[in-house]
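Dear colleagues,

I hope this message finds you well. In preparation for our joint manuscript, I am sending the Sugar phosphate isomerase/epimerase (Paenibacillus psychroresistens) sequence together with its predicted structure, so that both groups work from identical material. I would be grateful if you could confirm receipt.
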Amino acid sequence: MKTMRIGMNLLLWTDSPAFIKHEELVCTLHKWGFDGVEFPVAPMSHQDISAFSSLCDSLGLGRSAILALDAETADPASSDHRLRLAALNEIKRAIDKSIAIGANVLCGPLFQGLGRFTGAAPTPAEWGWSAETLRLAGEYALEGGVSLALEPLNRFEMYMVNTMEQATQFVKNIALPNVGLLADTHHSNIEENHTAEAWSKSYESIVHVHISENHRGMPGSGHAVTQGVFELLLKRNYEGWLTIEAFGQSVVNLIPRLHLWRAYAENEERIARGGLEFIRSQILPVRE
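The corresponding C-alpha cells are as follows:
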C-alpha cells in the first residue's frame, strides 16, 4: 500500500547544495529516517546533481525539487516579454535538473518573480501572462514526466496568488494534468480562515505538501501545522510528499528575505528530527 512520504528541504542548511559539502548531510537525513530530500536545484552544477542522484539511489531516498524566481531577472507575470521568457527558460532548466536528480516534482512560488509588488491587486493581463508562461513550462515538464506544484504565498511575499482558492482557479485555467498546487501550512495559516477546510476544497489540485510552522521553526512547536491538516490528508488517502520546510540562521542569504531575525530551536538537527517525530506521530496509523 502506498503511503505518505516525509521529506526534508535542504534550505534549512543551504541554498546551494554541493556534493563535497553536503554529502554527509544527505546521509544523515537518511539515518534519521527521512524518506526523501528536497533540493533547491537552480544553483546546482550538473556534476553535483549527478552525484546526489547516485547517492540518493544508493540510500533509497526519494527526491523533490524547489525553485523560486527573482523578479529582477525572471518574472512570469511581468509586462516585459524578456522577463517572461527568462522565467520560462529558468523553469525549463530547473525541470531538466529535476529529471537529472531523480525528482518527479518541481515545486515553488512560480506565479511571479519574488520581490516585486505593484501596490495593487493583480490585473487580468498579469494573470494571463503568468498563466501562459506556466502553461508553456507545464507542457515542457509533461514531456519529461515532471509535475509542477505551484505555491501560493502569503500577501507579504507575493501579490499574484495568495489563497488556495485563487491558486486552484489558476491551475484549472492552465488545464494540464501535471500542473497542480503545493499546499504550505505556513502560508495557509496566514491567508486562510481554516487551513484544512481550504485544502479540502482544493484537494484535487494538491500534488505536494510543505509542513512549515508559523515561525518557520520545528513543525509541531507552533500553531500553523494543525491536526486537521493531517486528518484531511489521511481521510483523502494522500500519497505524496509531506516535506518539512523550515529555516534557521545558517543560510545568510535567506535571513533578510524571510525576516528570520531569531532562532526558533537550538540547532538544525532539533528542527529536522523533532519535525520528523511530530509528523510521524500524526500519520503513524497509515505508516505501520
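For the figure legend, we might mention the following. The chain has a mean pLDDT of 96. The beta strands are 5-9, 36-40, 62-66, 105-108, 147-150, 179-184, 206-211, 241-244.

With kind regards,
E.M.
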